[in-house]
Amino acid sequence: HHGGTDLTADVRAKEPWASAILALILPYRPYPDSVPVSGNYPSSNKAYHAANRLMRALNGQGVRTERAYVPIRELLIRNGAGVPLKNGLTYIPGCGTRFSVQTLLIDLPEAEFTPVQVQEEPFCTKCHACEKVCPSGAISESGYDYAKCARAYMGGEPMEDWVMDAMTSILGCELCQSICPYNREIEPMQDVPEAFALEKLLTGDVKPALEIVGTNLNKNGRLIQHACVMAAKQGRKDLLPLIERLLEDQREGVRAATAYAVKRLR
Q1: Residue 62, exposed/middle/buried by CB under 10 A (0-12, 13-18, 19+)?
Q2: What are 27's strand-pairing partners?
Q3: pLDDT (tens digit, 9 = 90+) per residue, 217-242?
Q4: Which one-letter DSSP state was computed for residue 110?
Q5: C-alpha angle 162/35/193, rounded to 5°?
Q6: Sign of CA dihedral 95, 96, 99, 102
Q7: The whole model's pTM is what?
Q8: Strand pairing partners for 102?
Q9: In this structure, are residues 102 and 53 in contact, taking their beta carbons and an 8 Å threshold?
Q10: H helix or E strand, kind and range, residue 33
């Protein structure tokens, strides 16, 4: 992944001043399946800002704390906090796979930690639900193939039809999470912010949504692109006038998503 180029696994060599890594885990509840919005990004944005507040507070008390750019999944697994699943996700008891993680380096005077191994065999040895439901075939008996995952191609660049065909929510595809047995006990949220209404996004009123998911998530009109696709998926012909106005948009990704939606809605 393009965002993983600066990760380090040898923290002691790169950051010798730090004595510990804080893994800050924020569980979240998804939106109902009937609501085409991913719950991951609102949670991730909330966790990011909470970690920043903690970092500032610790530094203000003279405890040196910085962002930790480490492989988070490996950190959780090797320290017994999580169990790796076939679909590329990680299970944490009490959270399922619905959580966001932020990591901080910290210089504690007495850093002690005893890992508690999660003695649990993943359902993945018997369950094939995510394999069957994955719309792009990214999950198989041998595991998860990032290059085939449609979500990897939803970052703002023009999307191919197969990617838009696989999309199940604004900002992603949630099928493997929704079907996972580890998430069965997690009750969805009932209140969905008005900021995600397709009508608002298609008119370019994206600021309220970006305040929830993070201001960096609208590269090349990403939210508008996704709103077009979800309008097509929902058969929202009433939104055609708003979508057709975007056919001449200067952003290539928006034009591609608009053409996809218009073709299907007409």
Answers
A1: exposed
A2: 99
A3: 999 999 999 999 999 999 999 999 99
A4: S
A5: 125
A6: positive
A7: 0.88
A8: 24
A9: no
A10: none
